[in-house]
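input
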Amino acid sequence: MSTALAAIAPELTLAVMALVLLLLAAVRGQAAARPVLRGGAVALALVFAVLGATAGAPAQSVFGDMVVVDVFATALKMALVLALMAALALSAAPMRLDNIARPEYPIVTLLAGVGMMGMVSAQHFLALYVAMEMQALALYILVSSGASSARSAEAGVKYVLLGALASALMLFGMALLYGATGALDYVTIRTVLEGVDAPGLTVGAGLAFLLAGMAFKISATPFHMWTPDVYAGAPTRVTTLLALAPKIAAAGALARLLFGPLEPLAAQWVPILVVLSVASMSWAALAGVVQGDLKRLMAYSTIGNMGYMLLGFIAGGADGLAAALFYLLVYVLSVAGVFAVILAMRRDGRVVTEIVELSGLARSRPLLAAGMAALMLSLAGVPPLAGFFAKFVVFKVLIDQGMWLLAVYGLLTTVVAAYYYIKVVKVLYFDIPAEPLDRAPARARAAVLAVSVLGVVALLLAPGLGLDVARVAVAPLF
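output
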């Protein structure tokens, strides 16, 4: 038992710290908001140190082989912790400026992090479902946390209802696969499926329902319907969290499923992923063009970028999955900086999220505009920024597998989608200046933006480094 507890030390650390901070909030009330936020940051830093110290440890399965701790899980958990730290850092300023003192936000964020880390380590359907629901319940609370906002309440209701549907689909898929294989653990399921020449209807239906639920988690079309409304309606600090960490956790869980127990069914799930990817890239490219709200624009950016990430899954193998993981991390790095800018958009103390509000920002806030422009161009895939290299790697692995038609289609949708990213740059530099944005205290926000911009630029100096790290991370799955 001591070995098992040591294996999940990061999750236990987050859970215990969340409970300690909860007691502090219960005793001190709203006055505990700042100490709790700092305590959450300390907890995440401690977990990152623990993960770094155990990064090279041999893989081990604990709790009856329900949970696995390997290089893949550790790498994704470290990325998750960094994403959560960025979300907490960006949340500090808006809570202070809105005169909101809510210690619940950091606490629930930590509990969501426990579920996310459990998702990437799960190798049993029950462990995956429990971890996923723990994350989902925490996010439901956060999305609805704008108590005085009707839009936040509406977003919360939509997210809960559609999230419950996705969970039901996943659970039904798991039940069908259990009925067909007689097992819930990944190793046994793979062994049984490898011995089946022609999977039956039960297996096919189970696979379809399971992938439908996972598609909801990563915002892939046609299971994206919640994303624009929830991104726009949730408090911006919560939208920031939604755009960062949950995507890493869902991608990690999906990779462990597809290249683990469901690997023998690749002939069945590859066409499904092709449909999801093509639909996501197409819909995001077309619908994003008409968006005037930055938060909704980033929702469609998420949908499209998850489509590009799925191209790496479709290519398959260690190279394909490494390309997908590298693409995801470049996307998350860019989005963190974009939301740092969105959170800075206030005029006369009022939150503004419309693209037109950025008009002429380059004249009044040149550094902020330059950072936003660099990140938008990276998301558009403009060379030589990191976003271009990430897309190039994904398209290359597709072409290496002979899937050149899919690569060409992805390139075409990239060109279409580039319009709405470049439109933001045009507004920043060429439109008639609007009223200047408020100059609010923003040390944490500026730090996140700086790290984000430096990250997408630094990859130019060593473009293969991030991809090499991704290859090392995915090695245990193969």
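quick obs: The chain has two domains: 1-149+220-257, 267-478.
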